[in-house]
Design a protein that fits this description.
This protein is of the alpha+beta class. The chain has one domain (2-183): Gcn5-related N-acetyltransferase (GNAT) (Aminopeptidase, 3-Layer(aba) Sandwich), CATH 3.40.630.30. The protein has helices spanning 2-5, 11-18, 31-41, 46-57, 113-127, 142-150, 158-170, and strands at residues 22-25, 67-72, 78-85, 97-104, 132-138, 154-155, 177-183. It has a seven-stranded mixed β-sheet, sandwiched between helices. Helix 3 (31-41) packs antiparallel against helix 4. 31% of the residues are buried.
């Protein structure tokens, strides 16, 4: 039953149950509902996410690049989230802005939400004058790899990929990452 509910066959039913979604930049007023979503769905802790977004939305936000976007229903519930920022914030020696998280709730998967979230981040990166956007994806995350591929992301150089994996290995990660990048401009 669970496989059916989250499959392509159930998309019309899920679309009806979820209702229309608005993909937009998130604001400070969205933080609490986002943190509730994060507690259930994200691999980063809600405390870490709060700290990152508080800094982004706080007094120093004019100095920071990046954005947080969400897919919200008409009742303000989050069904998807993506966030773009610099890894330098955590001391990783990786330049540029990166898609830091991309997650869609199971009931909204296979409905184009991930594509809309990343597209909105690309628009914002372009608006902020960022030349490129990068992403690091677990090598076994086929759904994310397809999403980024469909948006024109290409595999980064072997050197950047190795540098990224070395940085994450030093930070305690054990998964192998595929690094993707594309120009922020449309």
């Amino acid at each position: 039953m669970r496989d059916f509910f989250f499959s392509g066959w159930s998309k019309p039913l899920r679309r009806h149950l979820v209702g229309p979604l608005e993909v937009r930049l998130l604001r400070p007023a969205d933080l609490e509902v986002l943190l509730a979503f994060a507690a259930e769905r994200l691999s980063v802790s809600p405390t870490f996410l709060r700290r990152q977004l508080d800094a982004r939305w706080g007094k120093e936000s004019h100095e920071r690049r990046g954005a947080a976007v969400g897919a919200l229903d008409t009742k303000g519930r989050v069904h998807g989230f993506a966030w773009m920022d610099s890894y330098r914030e955590e001391g990783l020696p990786l330049d540029g802005v990166w898609v830091r998280s991309l997650v869609v709730a199971p009931q909204a998967r296979r409905m184009g939400v991930a594509t809309q979230l990343v597209s909105r981040l690309l628009e914002e990166a372009h608006r902020q004058g960022e030349p490129h956007v990068r992403a690091d994806v677990d090598e076994d995350n086929d759904a994310s790899l397809r999403t980024f591929d469909g948006l024109g992301f290409r595999r980064a150089s072997a050197r950047l990929t190795e540098q990224t994996n070395e940085a994450w290995d030093a930070a305690g990660s054990t998964k192998r990452l595929i690094v993707l990048e594309r120009d922020a401009a449309p």
